[in-house]
Amino acid sequence: MTRTISVHAEHSYPVVIGHNLLDNCASYVDRSNYERALIIHPATVVAYAQKVGRALEASGIEVGYFEHPDGENGKTVDVLAAAWNSAGNRYLSRNDLIVGVGGGVTTDLAGFVAATWLRGVSVLQVPTTLLAMVDAAVGGKTGINTEHGKNLAGAFHSPISVIIDIDTLDTLPDIEFNAGMGEVLKCGLISDPSILALAQAHAPVTRRDAVVADLVEKAVRVKAKVVSQDLKESGLREILNYGHTLAHAIEKLEDYSIRHGHAVAIGCIYAAHVARILKRCDNECVELQTRVFARQGLPISWTVDNFDRVLDVMKSDKKVRSSAIRMVLVSRPGLARVEKISDDVLRQASRTMEISSS
Description:
- With 358 residues, this protein is α/β, with parallel strands linked by helices.
- Helix content is 42%, strand content 20%.
- Helix 5 (174-190) crosses helix 7 (211-229), helix 5 (174-190) runs parallel beside helix 9 (260-277) and helix 8 crosses helix 9.
């Protein structure tokens, strides 16, 4: 069964979820007059990229490929410049197409290339990891990393379509799937508690479980609803960053050796401790969040020698206003809001969660 969710941004586009979709991906291209396409992908999914390429070629589109380094090394200024050169070498015009086939790094990079090449060309996103399916590929946020932090250079650029072929998860390593569950559970905490109930009923969820398609659909619906109301993160969309204030700091301080979904799980629990200190939630809410992530096998703790280093990185976060750290806090599953948080509260939460003693 194929499921389609509409996202309404600067233009409306479908997110299509189902099985065996790659062979038919050309049917989700919004125009018939694309002449060329550049498929951006890592080496790990070259077979999927070629499958998408063959489908586009069968529809009359000339296809080229750009392979980027795996992991966060694929989101650098140097890689971005190389992708631009590849687009130039293939004479991509404003009427042509960028296609991202891969995980969150790929869809972030492909989207940014599309947003900036000739001041904007179309992008088709084909996520092949759970994390990209429920987060990075949907919503139009694109970007690369800088020496100051994650995703600090980027643009809002919505895709023409997002094609989620659940079959691509068959080759996803278990640890990568589990990291993606961090973002799925986050969606349950900020908006749709039924996600938590479904995941807990099958915990730990694995990529082979039939419930995965339902969880993907529910998580995408959460993101689609929020993005459709607030494309450029001026208000409501900020709730999608639950757990990310600490998560992005962890990733940078650990040189991106910790997977994003794992860092988000830790960041959500930390945010719960902050909320408890501010009396925005009770002990039961903190314990619920800790239990939800732990039962999925996600990390629930992290330590650092000097919390000042964490504060410095968190203060480079995109949500900071006038040097004040702003965090998403959850009072109960389905109820989230953004608040300014003092350094004293952040330090106290780090001690109660035993992140640091400072």
